[in-house]
Write a structure and sequence with these properties.
Number of helices: 6
Helix content: over 70%
Order of helices and strands: HHHHHH
Mean pLDDT: 83
Low-confidence stretches: 104-113
C-alpha cells in the first residue's frame, strides 16, 4: 500500500522536524521567536538533530520492548504515535515555560532591551570579535602610533566583551 502525499509529508515532519523543534524551544525558551538567518539555522539544525535522535531512540525502544518487533507503517503507526507524543510533550513544556517565564525572553525585538535579548547579545559579541580580528590584522602592518591606538581599542573590546559575558552569566545564575 503506497502512502498518500499527506501521509508522506506528515511522516517526514514527524521524523525530521516536529519533535526536535518542540524540544528545542522547551530547552531554550529564550530562542523564541527566531530572529535572523543565523538564528533560524541554529534552531533548525538543533531541531533536526534532536528529531533524528528521538526517532532512533523511540525506534530502538519499540524494537526492544516488542518481542515481535514493530512495523513503521501507516497501517501500524506505533512509531508515529510515539513521535507525536514526544512532540506534544515538548510543545507543552515549551508553552508552559513561555507562559510562566517573564516576557523579556519571549517578547518582540521592540519589547526586549538590548541587554537582555540573547540574539542581540550574541550578535554584539560576534561583531566585537570580528572587529578585534580586523584590528589584529591591521596591527601587523601599522606604525607604532597606529599600533598604540589599535591596542587601546582592543582593550576596550576585551573589557566590553567581559562586561557582556559577566552580565549574561549573572542573568542565568
Amino acid at each position: 500500500m503506497s502512502a498518500s502525499a499527506l501521509e508522506t509529508v506528515a511522516g517526514v515532519l514527524l521524523v525530521f522536524v516536529v519533535p526536535g523543534l518542540a524540544w528545542t524551544f522547551a530547552i531554550f525558551p529564550e530562542w523564541w521567536p527566531v530572529r535572523g538567518y543565523a538564528a533560524a539555522l541554529k534552531v533548525g539544525t538543533l531541531g533536526f538533530v534532536l528529531s533524528i535522535a528521538f526517532t532512533v531512540i523511540a525506534g530502538y525502544a519499540l524494537l526492544s520492548l516488542s518481542p515481535a518487533g514493530f512495523a513503521a507503517s501507516w497501517s501500524d503507526p506505533v512509531l508515529e504515535t510515539v513521535l507525536a507524543l514526544i512532540a506534544a510533550v515538548g510543545a507543552a513544556v515549551a508553552a508552559a515555560q513561555r507562559w510562566l517565564r517573564p516576557s523579556s525572553a519571549a517578547g518582540s525585538p521592540a519589547d526586549s532591551p538590548d541587554d537582555t535579548d540573547p540574539w542581540v547579545i550574541d550578535r554584539r559579541l560576534e561583531r566585537l570579535a570580528q572587529e578585534a580580528a580586523a584590528l589584529r590584522r591591521a596591527g601587523r602592518s601599522a606604525s607604532a602610533e597606529e599600533r598604540r591606538k589599535i591596542h587601546e581599542r582592543l582593550e576596550e573590546i576585551r573589557s566590553e566583551s567581559r562586561r557582556i559575558a559577566a552580565a549574561r552569566e549573572e542573568e542565568y545564575v
